[in-house]
Amino acid sequence: MWTSKNRPSYNRDMLRYPSDLTDAEWEQIEPLIPPAKRGGGKRRVNMREVVNGVMYVLSTGCQWRYIPKDLPPRSTVNSYFCLWSYCGALEKIHHALYLKCRELDEREASPTACIIDSQSVKSAEKGGLESIPMASMPES
Question: Whole-prediction pTM value?
Fold first, then answer.
């Protein structure tokens, strides 16, 4: 929550791009990055820069080909993004950060309430098997 006291901690002016990770953010994410494959060579890419590239694409919504030249090549950033999506690493990172935020806010790990608005209920009533048209089959 933004207050006049903690507002300076949200200032991203000192970063190269607003989507880049601060040192504190990287400390939280670094242990969650999957290790390199066994038997392969040592990673030659800076993983923080790869995460910065992924964050740049996700925060700006730009196409992969428009990743700035000072970040790792788009093929590298995209390959790691696809790998982490496939193996569930991005979901694990999100979940870990979500739990951390709830802890800092002194809340339980999982929400205890749910809100369903009337529009959701109305649209759900219209669905179901009855709304799916049956394929016409030739009679035998």
Answer: 0.71
